[in-house]
Specification:
Elements: H1 9-24, H2 36-56, H3 61-87, H4 93-116
Length: 120
Amino acid sequence: MIKTFRDLEVYQEAYQSMLIVHRSIKQFPVFERNDLASQVRRCSKSCVANIAEGWAKRIYEKEFKKHLNIAIGSANEMEVHVETARDLGYWSKVLCEDLLLRYQRLGGKLTNLQKNWKTY
């Protein structure tokens, strides 16, 4: 039974992905810590935060869907950041493949939640 946003599978997956991202940022070169690393940290947090905020406003369909749209956008943005980190050699291909798959699945699940939110 879903009682809070923490019970949502999309929240749990977004949170776990955010933790992986934050732990992996240490591999970035120092000169990227204020640029790409900062953007990646904020973006990964955005997915989690918007799921939580949207859940609080779920009685208002437009508000809930707005926050899910933002989370979907952040998941898509994370794919770009992960590809950038991979192609610049900051992260390993294995880590990037895992993160890309996580954020692709997350985006799909968020889209499904958005379409079927009244059944949850």
